[in-house]
Amino acid sequence: MIIWLKRLFQSDHFEFISESRMLKLIQKKMLRFFQHENIGFLKQPLILFVLLFSLQLQAQTKTNLEVFKALVDSSISNILNKVGDPEKKISLNLKLGESYQVFEDQVFKSAKASGKSVSVEKNDDSKSEISYTLENAKVSYGECFRDGFLGAHYVPRVNSLSGSYRIFEKEVIVDDFSLQVVDTVRYDEIESLENSSYPFTNGEIPSEPFFSSLFEPLVAVTTAAIVITLFFTVRSK
Predict the structure, then answer these.
(1) pLDDT at 27 over 80
(2) Residue partners of 97: CB distance under 8 A and separation at least 6
(3) Distance (Å, rounded) from C-alpha 155 to C-alpha 203?
(4) Angle 170-171-173 (CA atoms, 0-180°, nearest 5)?
(5) Which of 15-19, 85-89, 149-153, 231-235 has the lowest mean pLDDT?
(6) How many angstroms separate the first and last alpha carbons of the chain?
(7) How many CB atoms sit inside 10 A of residue 18's CB?
């Protein structure tokens, strides 16, 4: 598996492209590779369909809330790596405010996933205390652009998370953190990626290009007119 994946992409130069475009490219490359290598079992249509469909399932875009949870996970992992004594238990003091209480469970999950024993009990000498403050979570979108001629519209998405923390040990460590994820999402998926229950997951949605909204219906009408004209022209002959 590793060998053919290396051979699959060894001649390609990948730029910053959308996830769906990447999967389409993978599918095309896989088909060409299998045809070239003459892999017999993949000539069965059902097996090939299942393989390609499984790739398509992985193209589902993460919601804004899911991206923020991943950023919280990264921030907690980075902070725990700065604890002086890795064997000590951790006492967590969370300051999430009303807006970000939804991340409380994620903080504890992330800490426990790092192999730490965590609690919210008052600190004592046997524990390292961490005060974690989440100050801002924000999503923003860039300008809308088209993926090729008559392709789907996409927008750059930026999820930003920032806050501060303190680690109380023999010495007190005080620092800020700021994390960001940048990707591209389909314009028509934006509403499904946001969550009205959590305002910080909602960003200002850019407007669709004016000429684009006029051009697509025009192309559809023109194409239909040409097809009808050709149909009657052929019949008349």
Answers:
(1) no
(2) 134
(3) 12
(4) 135
(5) 15-19
(6) 57
(7) 19
CATH number among 2.60.40, 2.40.50, 3.30.160, 3.40.50, domain 64-213: 3.30.160
Q: Give the CA count within 13 Å in the CB-facing half-sphere of 136.
A: 11
45: Cβ contacts below 8 Å, ≥ 6 apart: none
Alpha helices (H) along the chain: 2-9, 19-37, 45-57, 64-80, 104-113, 190-193, 210-236
**Cβ neighbour number for residue 204 with a 10 Å cutoff:** 7
Positive or negative: CA dihedral 48, 53, 54, 56: positive
The Cα 42–Cα 185 span in angstroms is 32
Average pLDDT rounded to a whole number, residues 25-42? 56
pTM of the model: 0.67
Question: Taking a C-beta distance cutoff of 8 angstroms, is the pair 199, 109 a contact?
Answer: no
Residue 139: CB partners within 8 Å, gap ≥ 6?
A: 64, 67, 157, 158, 159, 160, 194, 200, 201, 202, 203
**Cα–Cα distance list, 14 to 9, 18, 21, 25, 26 (Å):** 9, 11, 11, 10, 11
Domain ranges of the chain: 16-57, 64-213
Q: Which residue has the tokens 């590779």?
A: 33
Interval 158-206: pLDDT, tens: 999 999 999 988 889 999 999 999 999 999 999 999 999 999 999 999 9
**What integer pLDDT is reported at residue 8 of this predicted model?**
43
Do 108 and 94 form a contact (C-beta atoms < 8 A)? no
How far apart CA 111 and CA 37 sit, in angstroms, is: 46
